[in-house]
């Protein structure tokens, strides 16, 4: 079974917006060298999720975990993403697709952000 991890983000018109997501992708890929770690976007940037999934399937990937890199479960995660996942599953019925909670809904992620915020107070003088 060949695995892939897709970090799913909104996308923006400015290419520079993707820089933190690219850094996150690189950090995760360094920690999981046996897994294809990539980015996919909802809109405005490429690759979009259906394109990225099709490319991974063409490379022999059979198992995808998708991490929405959103702070909350807003409309895009609750409405748009499930529609896209249904389309991916219909196009690639042999593909196992697992979608986890939005990053900002995870307790460990929130703790890391809280630590950063508290640390910002220490640096203020």
TrEMBL record:
Entry keyword Cytoplasm: no
Coiled coil residues, start to end: none
Example GO molecular function: lyase activity
InterPro entries assigned: CbiX-like, Sirohydro_Cobaltochel/CbiX
Alphabetic keyword roster: Lyase, Metal-binding
Gene3D superfamilies, A to Z: 3.40.50.1400
Pfam families named in the record: CbiX
Protein name as catalogued: Cobalamin biosynthesis protein CbiX
Organism: Pseudoduganella dura
Taxonomic lineage of the native organism: Bacteria, Pseudomonadati, Pseudomonadota, Betaproteobacteria, Burkholderiales
